[in-house]
Amino acid sequence: MNFCSDNTTRVSPEIMAAIASANSGTVMSYGDDEYTQRLQVKFSELFETSVTVFPVATGSAANSLALAVMTPPYGAVYCHGESHINLDECGAPEFFTGGAKLVTITGNHAKIEAETLGKILDKAGVGVVHHVQPAAVSITQATEAGTVYNPGEISQISEVVRRHNLHLHMDGARFANAVASLGCSPADVTWRAGVDILSFGATKNGAMAAESVVFFNRKLANTFPFYRKRSGHLFSKMRFLSAQLEAYITDDLWLKNAAHANQMTARLAAGLASIEGVNFCHPIEANEIFVQLPESVIAAVLAEGFMFYRWDSETGCTVRLVTAFNTQESDVIALVESVKRHYSLFYKGRFYK
């Protein structure tokens, strides 16, 4: 009954089978294998345009290396203050760009708004030697608040990005959950909306350890092989990363897994919403819930064996609940019933105190 993260789950059976299938015979190394070569074709079919794809093993590598090819050492990457690249990459974007600065932007529910971005870029000091120079904008899909950018919002941001001659990166660690939520094609929320590079996540949605950097602006891909090698992400046995990614996008497994996770979150949210006094911090749009609960309720539910993170501090009353591709409906129901039961005790304690 672990709702800490979609990183805590097992590997999707289809992907584990693909790894086992790839574990026979000899193939060429460093990406010169048939699995990796097929990815170029299959990802191009998935996104309905010619793309260049590079497998890597972690989201941190995907994000940081993508930003590195977009941003010089004296450049600036504009991102939301709650973004993963700002809070949870241990300075990796700054390291791999050679010192570029992350400039944070505020926005409701962890989303950047085009109008706010435009006003900031208008005053960024382009050409002024004393200032870092704007180079890229990074948005997260789905966001760190579990919210989702629709195609129109991304297009508006992209228009601002183009007007200022920058590039647009998308951190898609939970890209599948966003696409499943929107019910659109992956092309609609990437290159058609103006995204240059996508960090396409798979690990949170059933892979063992596989992400990919997808270039829609293929000119930006020219130097990426050197960045990947230098970072230690040019795997000699690349076939095992590529086999995961191939299985992930075959027969829409990535969307099926994400749709299940989203459905479990919706079921959980509906159950919690039926409890008087429960407050949600953000709209429920993908597979994450941020909710405020009394301390006594949090402690009691944790004591029953449920696992989740406190999100505002170790003693805070905002918790994050995340569902995954294999979350059981019975666990969702049990969590709702536990919260409901202890909320009843909480209210009784307040009334009779």
> Unreliable segments (pLDDT under 50, ≥5 consecutive)?
none
CATH superfamily of the largest domain: Type I PLP-dependent aspartate aminotransferase-like (Major domain)
Distance between the termini: 32 Å
> Helix tally?
13
Please describe the structure with a list of short key phrases separated by commas or semicolons.
353 residues, alpha/beta, Aspartate Aminotransferase, domain 1, 2 domains, 4-stranded antiparallel sheet, 13 helices, globular
Secondary-structure map:
Elements: H1 13-22, H2 34-47, E1 52-56, H3 59-70, E2 75-80, H4 84-87, H5 92-96, E3 101-105, H6 114-122, E4 133-140, H7 151-163, E5 167-172, H8 175-182, E6 197-201, E7 211-215, H9 224-230, H10 239-249, H11 253-273, E8 279-280, E9 288-292, H12 295-303, E10 309-310, E11 318-322, H13 329-352
Parallel strand pairs: 2-3, 2-4, 4-5, 5-6
Antiparallel strand pairs: 1-7, 6-7, 8-9, 9-11, 10-11
Would you mind describing this structure in some detail?
This protein is α/β, with parallel strands linked by helices and 353 residues long. The chain has two domains: 13-251, Aspartate Aminotransferase, domain 2; 254-352, Alpha-Beta Complex (Aspartate Aminotransferase, domain 1). Helices cover 42% and strands 15% of the residues. It is built from 13 helices and eleven strands. It has helices at residues 13-22, 34-47, 59-70, 84-87, 92-96, 114-122, 151-163, 175-182, 224-230, 239-249, 253-273, 295-303, 329-352, and strands spanning 52-56, 75-80, 101-105, 133-140, 167-172, 197-201, 211-215, 279-280, 288-292, 309-310, 318-322. A seven-stranded mixed β-sheet has the order 1-7-6-5-4-2-3, sandwiched between helices. Strands 8-9-11-10 form a four-stranded antiparallel β-sheet, with helices on one face. Strand 5 (167-172), helix 8 (175-182) and strand 6 form a beta-alpha-beta unit. Helix 8 packs across helix 11, helix 11 (253-273) packs parallel to helix 13 and helix 12 packs across helix 13. 48% of the residues are buried. The mean pLDDT is 95.
